[in-house]
Specification:
Immunoglobulin-like, 11-stranded antiparallel beta sheet, 4 helices
Length: 286
């Protein structure tokens, strides 16, 4: 009994047990980390499923093309007065089949690169105060080890004449302050431009010029007008630049004053990026 009384006295003297705030913080951090890992796993699974579907689609197209070529041998008869018409029809089918095969190849490479680039894009959607359309955009933040940050935005401009999708980069330092690059700009065709190194798909890197945006640390990397039943057209660019549909990867190296550089990745077939492009194209008048 004496020992019990002593134990009770020690218990009440110690007071109530207080929660450990450090343990609560660790628990919250673990919960956030688990949620992030689950989201990343789900994204990888979606990308893997899409890759498998693309591979199967390629196999099916190859089989269909082989069957079509066999059919050509039966239909094409030079002695037949209708042979020219049949030949023209088959040539048109072949052209469409080759275009579709090329499109699927671009899509396949684009999905693979989007996964390998490990860039994260966040989709935003707001109602336009001036039109009945929504304003869609995606943003991404890409950093390097030299204290530079590229804040990227892909946005749809639903103009009445021609919907346009813009790819914009805003250059910041690691504290989030703008880096003024206007002193290195040039004037071409009445517009202020900046010299960069650009790489399309598997092409060799090349020198290119891009326009300044609204601010002295903002560059419009690409801008495309979108149509309903034909390929997109680059806006304010040089002849020979590819259509947006033919791109699966674009990379830019931007040199900042004092010889600092940052590499920017644009995975065109990232799920969120392509959602903005598809939505913008759906607004094009037929």
């Amino acid at each position: 009994m004496k020992r019990l009384c002593v134990a009770l006295l020690l218990f009440f003297a110690a007071g109530p047990v207080r929660p450990d705030p450090l343990a609560d913080s660790r628990g919250r951090l673990e919960e956030i980390q688990k949620r992030h890992e689950a989201e990343l796993t789900a994204a990888r699974e979606r990308q893997f499923q899409q890759q498998q579907q693309l591979k199967q689609a390629q196999i099916d197209r190859d089989k269909a093309l082989a069957a079509q070529r066999k059919q050509q041998l039966k239909l094409l008869d030079p002695s037949d007065p209708l042979g020219l018409k049949a030949r023209a029809q088959l040539e048109e089918k072949n052209r469409k089949a080759e275009e579709e095969a090329a499109r699927q190849q671009v899509m396949h490479k684009g999905v693979e690169y989007a996964l390998a680039s490990q860039t994260r894009w966040t989709l935003t959607e707001v109602d336009s105060p001036m039109t009945e359309h929504k304003l869609l955009s995606v943003v991404s933040e890409q950093r390097n080890d030299r204290g530079l940050v590229a804040f990227l935005q892909v946005k749809c401009e639903p103009t009445n004449f021609l919907p346009r999708v813009d790819f914009i980069a805003t250059i910041l330092d690691e504290q989030g302050e703008g880096v003024d690059i206007s002193s290195s700009g040039k004037m071409i065709m009445g517009s202020s431009v900046y010299l960069v190194t650009r790489r399309y798909n598997d092409r060799d890197p090349e020198q290119a010029v891009v326009r300044f945006g609204e601010y002295d640390n903002q560059l419009i990397l690409m801008s495309y007008g979108l149509f309903a039943h034909q390929k997109s057209e680059p806006i304010w660019t040089l002849l020979g630049d590819p259509h947006l549909e033919d791109l699966w990867r674009v990379m830019y190296e931007v040199t900042i004053p004092r010889e600092r550089k940052i590499v920017i990745q644009l995975p065109i077939w990232n799920e969120s990026v392509h959602q903005v492009v598809n939505y913008c194209q759906s607004l094009a008048m037929p």
